[in-house]
Specification:
By secondary structure, this protein is mainly β. The protein has no helices and nine strands.
């Protein structure tokens, strides 16, 4: 894929976790662009669905990161919530910062902090 003349790697993601004590599934699409300094700019969108109840949270995100010698991508970014509903409606009008890492097999971990926007 090419974005503004720059090659971007598109990847779909899915994961499970806990958000404010609620078990959730997160799915979306990320676009990764390796910049000339070796850093990686990542952006995309996703949806978090509650595994109990009927909550949905949609968002966009941006991050900057680096590949480490072990092959893991470590990055830090922010998310902007677009829509919330059901038992995830309490996240309305909040923004989040996150740190994550992904290994070469696509396994990873994300830690996120929210506050009122």
């Amino acid at each position: 894929m090419s974005i503004n003349g720059t090659h971007a790697q598109a990847t779909a993601f899915t994961g499970n976790g806990t958000l404010a004590g609620i078990p959730v599934t997160d799915t979306g699409t990320a676009y990764l662009i390796t910049r000339s300094d070796g850093s990686v700019y990542t952006f995309g969108n996703g949806a978090i669905a509650s595994m109990i109840g009927s909550g949905i949270l949609t968002y966009t995100f941006d991050a900057i990161g680096h590949y480490l010698q072990d092959g893991k991508l470590h990055d830090t970014g922010h998310i902007i919530l677009k829509n919330t509903s059901g038992n995830l409606a309490s996240f309305s009008d909040k923004i989040g910062l996150y740190k994550d890492w992904y290994d070469t097999s696509g396994n990873g971990m994300t830690t996120m902090w929210f506050w009122k926007g």
